[in-house]
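hey so u asked for the seq, here:
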Amino acid sequence: MPEPIVQLAPAKVNLALHVTRRREDGYHDLESLVVFADVADELSATPADIDSLSISGPFAKALGTGESNLVSSAVAAFRARWPDAVKTALSLRLVKNLPVAAGIGGGSADAAAALRLMASLSEHPVPMAELADIATALGADVPSCLVSMPLVARGVGEVLTPLPEFPACHIVLVNPMVPLATADVFRRLRAHDNYPLPELPTPLTRPAQLGIWLAETRNDLQPPAVKLVPIIGDIVEQLAATQGCILARMSGSGATVFGLFGSAGQAHQAAQVMRAHNPDHWVAAAPVIVP
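ran it, structure tokens below
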């Protein structure tokens, strides 16, 4: 039995998210500073007679394995674009460690991991630009998850500016185990034409510097999300009160809240505090993945 090929699907965190315009197609233009935490779903593949997908892990029950699963969709889209690139069928196994509908890109990260996995198995080079086009067709967050490094995302999420430098910092993620649909949050959004992100300092190398910049930003989706799930606001307040927290804010469309810290010790201590206060919540502490 050959060793499985493994790709990780790290959690996406929107440190700041400004909604700048409602488009004629009904979607919204955004500007977002996106990072990835070193806590992840895990996708592995071994040769098989037919393509298949199985899911295990703490959040497996929230997902189906059919064609609607983004991993299956990503593999199908890759094969349609490059029919001869990966000649063998694959038995795919997804370990679902991240909560679903949580604002941390779980399904998008899984799809991106599937695209990277297929590209790694390809018998010929796969142009990154074309892989990114497939990612965009799969979902707004998939292109940034394909990169899985600090970046600024614009448009609906497909216009990416990777950041060559980013401060080493740590993040605590807290999810109240309440799924929150992105569409529901956007429906309650009052202002659709907010100002864009301020210009990032150059070079951006220190956590304190990042914190000063983040203080001038926001997540425009947080107020409507809090109205739908009020406990999000409580978690933000709790995390903000923990020692060393640079910023506490909701990620994406929620319901996951993040706390940003300058050291691993502070992050793990804050995670312990949050677990003690909220034993029924999902809590994780991890470093931010940096270039």
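The longest helix spans residues 106-121. The chain has a mean pLDDT of 94.
lmk if thats what u needed
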